[in-house]
Amino acid sequence: MKFIENECNELKMMLTEDIKKEIIAFANTNGGKIYIGVKDDGNIIGIANPDNDLQALTGMINEGIKPSLIEYTQIKIEQYDNKNVLIIEIQSSPNKPHYLADKGLKPSGVYLRHGSSSIQASDEIIKKMIFEHTGLRFEEMVSKNQNLTFEYLEKKFKDNNLSFDKNKYKILNIINEENKYTNLGLLLSDQCSYTIKCAIFNGTNKVEFRDRREFTGSVFKQVDNLFEYFKLFNKTSGKIIGLKRIDTKDYPEYSLREALLNSVIHRNYFFHSSIMVSLYDDKFEIVSMGGLIDGITINEIFKGISSSRNPNLANIFYRLGYVESFGTGIGRILTSYEHNNKKPSFDATENTFSITLPNMNFKESTNKTNIVNQSLSKEKIIIDYIKMHNKINRNITENILNLSKTGAYKFLNKMLEKNIIKKEGNGKNTFYVLK
Description:
The protein is an alpha+beta fold. The protein is about 35% helix and about 20% strand. α8 packs antiparallel against α11 (about 330-335) and α13 packs across α14 (about 405-415). Residues about 365-375 have low confidence and may be disordered.
């Protein structure tokens, strides 16, 4: 008989202390078997002292692994070709994460099975397992940063004619019963360490950047700033139907807003990776950490079934009028495209959730037409910026259009020649306004 090493089977020539890592990896993943007395190539060599190894192994499992795996492991000795093989059968444990007792709950102590290898778990994966198997919510945990301010959040409450003072902190779960700031407080604070990264691309792939931004601060500030930023790129196209001109934006503003809010409200903050937003000529993509919550399918989300990882965060977005009701966002994104032949798509992996919105006005065209459209698009971006901020300068033009200093001057001069804008001020104080 010959054994094969794979994602479910591990082969070991002899018993060593490292066997604990393999046991932990199987228990933290999908279970499996370890055969001791078998070479990596599958040939059986057997073990010389099966009883001694059996006793030593029992001690390793009982004393070297936490939480206890005694009830989720079975050990036996079997003979193959008249040779003794020690077999450990490990079940996938409901008490994850298991770890080496002398290392603790950190990457050097927690292992996972990946293919035919056992690998260290990252800090983020460890936190995810703790969350999933203990029910402990990220937003309820005490923040490592206790020096928090809430200037932006206070402004949002004031804009909505709502009171916001330290008496509200405990009601909103910004502080806990011990008067410590929670992770919810961290997300809402001006010192929030989680960010949204955005990239604007020329074309339909990631070959050529037009602009890159990272949005920081309170999650409310990030949402507001990113949404205003996207208004600069959400062009309007018109067509004549009968005697009427029908204007259509590239993306329904509601769908952009809901996709952004969904990524912020429902993401898994045990992962510290940024939310990633990409805008191409033909589509908008947003990817956030955290797959679907256990027991919920995408089809159920389409039907309005809602279960939030961060209910306290969702409640504050609701209080401030960002969301109208729970569980309706995905459905309304679909509704906003119901009269268009292009449809949004949604994808969930174990650790991510992504939304892709098609550009309703995008059409494949020749390279010559694309060059003209890109030029017109850049002019529209500058015009929209000036409409929103009353003026623009060369430095801002560089950043928005991803141009060099010389390129920005040339582009602004072309707009001057077309009498679209006019120049005011001198030197460093030079700026441009609509003519």
